[in-house]
């Protein structure tokens, strides 16, 4: 089939469709997951195009998944167990993991950054980049993590920083991918973890090809480095992390703050506001760096602000909280190496994903008018000096997070 429905979007559940030709890669399909067929809705997977003699012999398309191919929230633990078994039996997987961990350790010991970058034209005209080792003090293999889906999984390699409270902070992760895509598993993990997850593809590689030199190159690989424009590493970012890692080339710097708009029940919003205020003290940040304030409908001004925030986040906002939301105003990082602001964003994202069932909207600068509510992305018009013209830039999505409980409920209802 040529078209499928994206289950979750700003328009609502099962309100947005996509053509197979719009999907650029298997990783892109995972980002959009779950995808279903037109009614009756059944889980589908994206099949890449097939080329023969440099000619497209078969276009990309969607294929219906049968029961044995489904990857549901209920079966995530079994998928993880299967993946761990396969990894344990693979000498190539074990060697790749050891080589990459050693490369990361070498960089960290010598104070060298480990830069990653990518560009996704479907969400922004700007690139995203970061330093996987910013604030790191430990590299660990086979690091256990828990998800809001009531299961655990082992991260092949975890980059850890000192604890802000009690536990070491996960700053980034590496997963070695081989032989089996595990699409649903990785998609679910990507929707529940608040750190950059780099997936490295070693499918088809031999032990002889896995060398220290390979490990050095693959971590910073881009499509520009490959003649076939196919990178062997891919960076998964939860949408909530886009504002932290976007590189706007100074275009947005006339306002150095941006905002998250959080819709959840009153008690959770109060707790979240308290946690963020305590977090800012721990990180020795000022009210100019971060503020968390409840906005309700008790005055005409605040009621207007509530309606505006609801309009930004999109459909169903009033089902989460029709009379109040939490406005989190944050200073943008001054540079990719602004450690305290970086840790602040990571921790807030972790709180949103682990301690709430929130619908989260985004405003890329304070007071920005949502002049085109039908558009899912913020559009910034930049005036060109000495000309009466403007350049338009797609900045970031207006909706950044669906509640985890809602994801589980819909997946189970659709049998995905």
What structural category do the secondary elements indicate? alpha+beta
| Spatial strand arrangement across the major sheet | 10-11-12-13-14
From the N-terminal CA to the C-terminal CA, the straight-line distance is: 18 Å
Instruction: Indicate the mean pLDDT.
Output: 87
* Helicity level: 25-40%
Overall radius of gyration: 22 Å
What is the total tally of β strands?
22
Low-confidence stretches: 223-229
Q: Tell me about the biggest sheet? A: 5 strands, mixed
Q: Indicate the overall shape.
A: globular
Question: What amount of the residues lies in strands?
Answer: 25-35%
Number of helices: 11
Highlighted features:
416 residues, alpha+beta, five-stranded mixed sheet, five-stranded antiparallel sheet, 22 strands, 29% helix
Can you describe this structure in just a few lines?
By secondary structure, the protein is an alpha+beta fold. The chain has helices at 26-32, 76-88, 91-109, 183-190, 212-218, 242-245, 266-282, 300-313, 317-320, 339-354, 404-414, and strands at residues 3-6, 16-19, 35-36, 44-47, 50-52, 55-58, 61-64, 115-119, 127-131, 138-147, 151-161, 169-177, 197-201, 233-236, 246-247, 257-263, 290-296, 324-331, 359-363, 377-383, 390-397, 399-401.
């Amino acid at each position: 089939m040529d078209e499928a429905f994206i289950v979750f979007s700003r328009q609502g559940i099962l309100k947005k469709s996509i053509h197979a030709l719009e999907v650029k890669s298997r990783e892109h399909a995972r980002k959009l997951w779950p995808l279903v067929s037109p009614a009756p809705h059944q889980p589908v997977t994206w099949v890449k195009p097939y080329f023969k003699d440099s000619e497209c012999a078969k276009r990309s398309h969607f294929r219906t998944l049968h029961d044995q191919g489904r990857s549901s929230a209920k079966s995530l633990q079994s998928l993880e167990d299967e993946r761990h078994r396969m990894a344990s039996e693979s000498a190539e997987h074990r060697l790749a993991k050891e080589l990459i961990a050693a490369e990361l350790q070498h960089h960290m010991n010598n104070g060298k950054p480990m830069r990653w970058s990518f560009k996704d034209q479907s969400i922004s005209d700007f690139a995203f980049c970061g330093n996987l080792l910013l604030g790191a003090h430990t590299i660990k293999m086979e690091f256990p993590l828990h998800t809001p889906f009531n299961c655990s999984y082992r991260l092949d390699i975890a980059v850890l920083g000192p604890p802000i409270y009690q536990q070491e902070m996960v700053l980034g992760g590496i997963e070695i991918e081989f032989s089996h895509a595990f699409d649903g598993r990785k998609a679910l993990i990507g929707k529940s973890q608040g750190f950059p997850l780099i997936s490295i593809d070693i499918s088809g590689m031999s032990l002889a090809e896995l060398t220290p030199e390979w490990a050095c190159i693959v971590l910073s690989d881009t499509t520009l480095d490959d003649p076939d424009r196919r990178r062997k590493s891919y960076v998964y970012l939860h949408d909530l992390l886009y504002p932290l890692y976007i590189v706007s080339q100074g275009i947005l710097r006339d306002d150095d703050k941006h905002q998250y708009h959080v819709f959840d029940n009153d008690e959770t919003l109060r707790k979240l506001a308290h946690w963020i205020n305590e977090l800012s003290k721990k990180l020795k940040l000022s009210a100019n760096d971060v503020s968390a304030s409840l906005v309700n409908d008790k005055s005409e001004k605040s009621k207007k602000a509530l309606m505006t925030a609801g309009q930004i986040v999109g459909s169903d906002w009033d089902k989460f909280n029709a009379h109040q939301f939490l406005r989190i105003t944050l200073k943008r990082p001054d540079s990719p190496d602004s450690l305290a602001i970086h840790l602040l964003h990571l921790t807030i994202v972790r709180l949103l994903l682990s301690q709430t069932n929130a619908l989260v909207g985004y405003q890329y600068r304070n007071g920005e008018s949502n002049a085109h509510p039908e558009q899912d992305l913020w559009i910034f018009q930049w005036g060109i000096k000495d000309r009466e013209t403007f350049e338009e830039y797609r900045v970031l999505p207006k909706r950044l997070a669906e509640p985890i409980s809602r994801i589980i409920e819909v997946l189970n209802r659709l049998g995905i």
